[in-house]
Amino acid sequence: MIDQIIQMTLNLDMPQMSVLEWIITLGKFAFVFIPLAFIVVMIFMERKGASLIQDRLGPNRSALPVFGGLRFFGFVHNFTDGIKLFTKETFIPTYAHKVWYVVAPGIGFLVAFLTPAVIPWFAPLTWWTGDHISQVSGMIIDSDTGILLMFALSSLSIYGTAMSAWASNSKYALLGGMRATAMMISYEVSMGLSLMGIFLLAGSFNLQHIVAWQEAHVWGIFVQPVAFFVFLTSMIAETGRAPFDVAESESEIVAGYHLEYSAMRFGLFYMGEYAHIVIASIIIATLFLGGYAIPFVSTDLLRAHVDIALALCLGGLGTMIGGFHLMVRRWKKVYATMGAKDAGTRNREYSFLQFTSGVASPVVLALAVAVFFLLNPMAATTVDGTPIFPAWVSIAAAAVQVVVLIAKAFLFCWIWIWVRWTLPRFRYDQVMSLGWKILLNLALVNLVVTAIIAKLVTGVR
Amino acid sequence: MAKVIQRRSLTLLERSYLWEIIKGMGTTFKHLFRNFKNPEKMQLMSYPEVEVQTPQNYRGSHRLMKRPDGEPRCVACYMCSTACPARCITIEAEPSSDPRIEKKPRKFEIDWLVCVFCGLCEEACPVDAIRMDTRKVAISHYTRKEFIADMPRLLNWDPKDFPANDAQSQKAPGGKQNQQAKQIWGLEVKHS
Predict the structure, then answer these.
(1) Phi (first) and psi of residue B93, to 5 degrees
(2) Cβ-proximal residues to B35 (8 Å cutoff; 6+ apart), any chain
């Protein structure tokens, strides 16, 4: 019906789509918010990871004013930060170029919404509607341009940086912007070239095809280890994080390009940086770690045993909640021996968390067992030699695949944090020489070697 | 003779930088894992909920010592304010009512915002009247005026907070040796 209306009003040549297809196609747009949802968890992860690496506890004082103050081990700090950034004075320097100054922070943040469009979040959904096979792609934009479109979009964020640097009308900001631009130019080359090997093997720029190739053969990290290393390094440099954060090195140029920004305009830069990391993590997981694919389990096998997969997901969640329960119990004991003045309040909070997680964990585990026994994927109808499952089985399998992709992305997000708190900052010339003299050459050699081996082994391409 | 340290040149593995990065990341992960596993072994204190115990000889905020009858021991000799490099001590003298003592302070103020906590005042004092052993190091107020400690505040301390072997503190009212000291002090008055 919807497609008929659109067809009538816009006079487009639209394919016939059922209501379920329309719902899924439009619902896929919700995936653009995944990087934003990641940011909340990632800032918490960064703070806790940094503090534990440096033998300290990290920020943990802000509390929700319920039950005598729920701190959630510092998770509430995200929201207090948000309140602070939103309510601060938004200051514009007198000599700044007003229009570009205001527009610039939005660009990097906008890119975070655009890039998830070309990531395959799940295998193409297929189901039998009664007379024909319905198919919905796992990407918002199912285009053969794929990864190239993604690179084009993610490169746009440098315009935000350069524009903010120029509009601020400040020496330090301009220096930071220059450095960011130079890094962008240097590392974009090796970043693109390092991926040519895997495009050669998969034979496509479409991320869906690359993941399908990895699902059928082997993960990209095993066939292209050098490319993985070069791409990871370039991506860390691209996101401007330590050890490549020369663009905002506080010891040399104060804060770089966002020096003159305050309040939520700075917040947009801050969130844009994290969103960039999340997107980079998802791309690396997609290109080198099999994307949504579970090792040794093909999409058809997953759909045939979707009850087991869902049960395992819920079981994993239940186990994690149980682990949290044990952690709280341990920390409650530790805190009681410290002799702190607020021992009573904290004891109440930890008891609350302990009780909640202690109830939630068995409930989720019981749900997992129930799913395992009660859910029964219907037998597939075979059409043209490929098994076709009912719609709900495909959707449940897609949900499992999204969870798998997010788990892999979290692994890489953690690598970003881990590297940042391990390595000191490179000097600017070292960054340039690493980019041009080492990574670029490695990427080129890798491409040639891959081409030769691919020709020898397959003899086709 | 100066010792010449032979610098070892880096091996190929070290120059590749990658292996050393992996080793460094191993070190940080070791810390993370250890602290996650045994949070109680982290060398930290949940300040300000947990009181920090600074040592007795740490130079904290000042106090004025008291005679057994509770009067300040200070004789308003201006030695401390003369020695003070930051000039944070303000003293105004007046004649003492005690015939054995010439002067006593009418006003004794220390500006803790100006004070550099060097301890020269307690070194300079000839009668052990000013001390910095309160162990109070976090001095926080809302206005600048509150940072100026006057005589009642400097005299406001309890002998129970100081060790039993600190005889000069225990001679003050409320201290363990106060009765004894009062008797001696009173007897001397009788004889003079």
Answers:
(1) -100, 160
(2) A52, A55, B41, B42
Q: Give whole-number Cα distances, B159 to A90, A162, B108, B127, B169, in Å.
A: 54, 65, 21, 18, 6
Contact A52 B25 (CB under 8 A): no
Mean residue pLDDT of chain B comes to 87
A3, pLDDT greater than 70? no
pLDDT band at residue B81 under the 50/70/90 scheme: very high
Torsions phi, psi for A291 (to 5 deg):
55, -125
CA of B40 to nearest chain A CA: how many angstroms apart?
Answer: 6
Q: Which residues contact A248 (CB under 8 A, 6 or more apart)?
A: A176, A240, A255, A256, A257, A258
Place of tokens 């082994």: A457
User: Which of A140-149, A395-404, B112-121 shows the lowest per-residue confidence on average (mean pLDDT)?
Assistant: A140-149
Closest residue to B32, CB basis, from A52, A331, A339? A52
**Inter-residue contact B132 to B157 (CB < 8 Å):** no
Q: What is the CATH number of domain B63-185?
A: 3.30.70.3270
What is the reported pLDDT for A216? 84
DSSP B65-124: -B-TTS-B------HHHHH-SS--EEEEEEE-SSTT-SEEEEEEEEETTT-----HHHHH
B42 touches chain A (CB under 8 A): yes
- DSSP state, residue B5: P
B25 to chain A: which residues are within 8 Å by CB? 418-419, 422
Task: Mark which residues 6-35 of B lie under 8 Å from A by CB.
Answer: 18, 21, 24-25, 27-29, 31-32, 35
| Nearest Cα residue to A220 out of A192, A191, A200 | A200
| Order of all β-strands in the sheet with B148-149 | B89-95, B103-111, B148-149
Contact list, B28 vs chain A (CB under 8 Å): 53, 418, 421-422
Percent of chain A at pLDDT exceeding 70: 93
Question: Nearest-CA neighbor of B60 among B128, B125, B163, B130?
Answer: B130
Rounded-to-integer distance, Cα A162 and Cα A256, Å: 11
Give CA torsion, residues A402, A403, A404, A410, to 10 deg: 110
Tally of residues, chain A? 461
Cα A183 to chain centroid distance, Å, stands at: 22
Provide, rounded to the nearest whole percent, the portion of chain A with pLDDT above 90.
Answer: 10
Helix (H, G, I), strand (E, B) or coil at B131: strand
ipTM score assigned to the predicted complex: 0.79
Give me the numbers of helices (H) and strands (E) for chain B, helices first please.
7, 5
